[in-house]
Write a structure and sequence with these properties.
Helix content: 40-55%
Distance between the termini: 69 Å
Shape: globular
Structural class: mainly alpha
Strand content: 5-15%
Order of helices and strands: EEHHEEHHHHH
Number of helices: 7
């Protein structure tokens, strides 16, 4: 059954959805990396998190800060840019097959850092103290270690054999 829209007959929604090729959507995000590439991807996001959160040590102190805190000094746009860069870590975690609850938790860390960081003066101090990107990488690492087989990783190498 077709529905008239002006002079054009539109096809029903069910027919449109039947024509979609689901194969183009399958595996695009959830765990789309081949086994063994987890370590490379994880090293990349870990390096980015360190640059964003702990790349610079303030001389004469034990305080470390990253590019995130420096960008936060630029009013409004600096924290938006920092949040956009930090969202790459979340995107990469999703590409690695992290579950939705973990992605949501990582997104909350980033949203909190971006929102509070945008407050003048207090937000700049918050950016130095709250290391959302390192927290997100730690969450992903803890999850990957717990579910190592899912990510094509081995956490314990067995070097013995059992004889009957």
């Amino acid at each position: 059954m077709s529905f008239p829209i002006g002079d054009v007959m539109a096809e029903p929604m069910s027919t449109m959805f039947e024509r979609l090729d689901r194969s183009s959507f399958d595996g695009r995000f959830a765990g789309s990396l081949p086994a063994g590439e987890f370590d490379e991807s994880f090293a990349r996001i870990e390096a980015l998190a360190k640059i964003l959160d702990s790349a610079i040590r303030i001389p004469g102190t034990s305080v470390v800060m990253g590019v995130d805190a420096v960008l936060g000094l630029v009013p409004v746009i600096g924290d938006a840019i920092s949040g956009a860069i930090a969202s790459y870590i979340i995107w990469e975690a999703r590409r690695l097959g992290a579950p939705r609850w973990l992605i949501a938790r990582m997104a909350m860390n980033t949203a909190l850092d971006t929102a509070v960081g945008s407050i003048p003066i207090f937000g700049d101090m918050f950016d130095v103290a709250y290391k959302s990107n390192l927290k997100n990488v730690a969450l992903l690492k803890r999850h990957a270690d717990k579910h190592s087989a899912r990510y094509g990783r081995k956490t314990i190498d067995t070097a013995y054999t059992v004889e009957a």
